[in-house]
Amino acid sequence: MPKKTRILIVSTGRIHDFAMAGHLIEERLASEVDFDVTLSFDLEPISEAGLRRFDVLILYVQEERLSKNQTSDLVTWVSKGKTLIGLHCATASFLDNPEYGRLLGWRFSNHGPIHRFEVAPTETDHPITRRIPPFKVEDELYLLEDLAGDSEILLTARWQGGKQPILTFRQEGKGKVVYFALGHDARSLGDPTFQKILLRSIRWTRGVKESDPIRCGVIGYGGAYNMGREHGRLIEATRGLELVGVCDLDSTRLALAKEDFPSVAVFPSYRRLLQMDELDLVVLVTPHNTHAALAVQCLNAGKHVITEKPMCITVTEAKKMVGAAKRKKRMLSVFHNRRWDGDYTTLKRIVASGAIGEIFQIEVFSGGYEHPGWWWRSDKKISGGCLHDWGAHFIDWFLDLIPSPVIDVAGHFHKRNWHAVTNEDHALATLRFKSGVTATIEQSNLAAAPKDRWRVLGTQGAATWKGWGEDFWNVISYKDSDEPVVSRVPFEKGDWHAYYRNIADHLTLGEELVVKGEDGLRIISMIEAAEKSSKARKSVKPEVG
Question: Is residue 342 located within the same domain as residue 327?
Fold first, then answer.
């Protein structure tokens, strides 16, 4: 087993909540299998003897004095090849200690009010900031004085006509020093991008390198929404991924693929695609009923697999896919790209802010009154049924938004009008979570009266979205008033590229996979339980809750 990186966190001082910060950082780092983490709430470990057994020191401190011996021991320890990472108020510590300031590279001079601002990379190819786009965070924006003059600035934020450094790196002898200016409270310390940057800073400074690019192939270049082309473009736009092959049964579609991506190899047979030596990952953009068999064959051939949503049709199929991935030790993921839709990411931010209190009920609607069309998505044997399309996205949102097991599902499916096709005309499914939250999806081709696309009820308010044509949430909040405060919260910009950035981060750096095969299995379990419930006319416990 590889040797673990030994990390010391020192969190102490005044003004900030150092107990909260220390425990939050410790909890996040300790969840990584390659880290051995120690937390201290005083400066005593900063000495030659105290630092000797550590590889990384993380300072979240706001103290006045660091002794001469401690300063000398710290500089010597770093220069011999160790890593120092200063977070936020570390630059507001030991202000009368020029050697400490020079080591960290910066000294705090002032800060603006806590507000939401954008942080952007200045160097998109640096190993710490690679594939990290501009992101927004709510924090204090520190204004800094440069004491070392040799820091590489990796992230900045705009302030009064200029730019302020947010993430910097400098070399100290054989050691490395990173300063990350964010982290005033749990809003930024708990931010996923903040945590990703902290993890990367540790691993990169300790010599962890990104693997070679992942070579990708797409099976299915059909005309349905041109999703084969969309996957190809997302892959090509993601550093660390390369599109090397496309397969389709239709020679016309293959010719189009070659026109879209001149450098890729094209194949009329998926078996020939799988024979490519230079192929690591396969994306399945084929009808729903083909996903399971193709995924298992690709996994057995040693390839990582991404399926379009839904993952497959049945729980039995999903279990076979997850089992094959585990046996072959390969990645299995589902293209639930809509976790990064602007309406959904904005809803998550509204909920996290506490503006509507604790969620207890969610309702979503998709559809209208119209014939479902004559293509394969209307054929239940191929598509899986009414809930297997948009329903898979909605259920994925529910399960991502509510951190609780589902104890039962109630389904109500109707076949009343469009008898020439085999999908249900209308489906209603309610998930009941162990936490008490209920979440209902209505998917219909038989709903003559429209409804809001989203209705989210909380203990202190609500959030609604009417649907297409509006790009904001209507938020009603009683959080800080006996009278309702009504506001419109504009949508954040959607970012489907984030899905493939995470695939690259996972396969080249070992970072956590966001959408796992087990997530797809859980979604299919909810859909299957809803259909069983409708037939049995009673609530059903999902096989995977």
Answer: no
Q: What is the average pLDDT score of the chain?
A: 96
Residues 235 and 180 in one domain: no
**432 lies in some domain:** yes
pTM, whole model, 2 decimals? 0.94
CA–CA gap between residue 186 and residue 157 (Å, rounded): 19
Determine contact, residues 334/520, Cβ cutoff 8 Å. yes
- Structural domain span for residue 164: 5-205
Query: What is the model's pLDDT at position 2?
Result: 72
Q: Give the chain's domain count.
A: 3
> Distance between CA atoms of 25 and 488, rounded to whole angstroms?
34
Task: Read off the CATH number of the domain in which 21 is found.
Answer: 3.40.50.880
Domain CATH number, residue 319: 3.40.50.720
DSSP characters for 107-174?
EEEEE--SEEEEEEES-TTSTTTTT---EEEEE--EEEEESSS-PEEEEEEEETTEEEEEEEEEEETT
403-453 pLDDT, tens digit each: 999 999 999 999 999 999 999 999 999 999 999 999 999 999 999 998 999
Mean pLDDT over 181-194 rounds to 96
Q: Residue 14: its pLDDT value, please? A: 87
Domain final residue, candidates 144, 176, 205: 205
Report which residue type is found at 252: T
Residue 376 CA to its chain's centroid (Å): 31
Task: Name which of 140, 74, 134 is nearest 113 in CA terms.
Answer: 140
Same domain, 358 and 304: no
**pLDDT band at residue 310 under the 50/70/90 scheme:** very high
Residues 347 and 303 in one domain: no
pLDDT at position 167 is 98
As a whole number of angstroms, the distance between CA 235 and CA 264 comes to: 12
Judge if 382 and 274 occupy the same domain.
Answer: no
Question: How many alpha carbons lie under 13 Å from residue 46 in its C-beta half-sphere?
Answer: 26
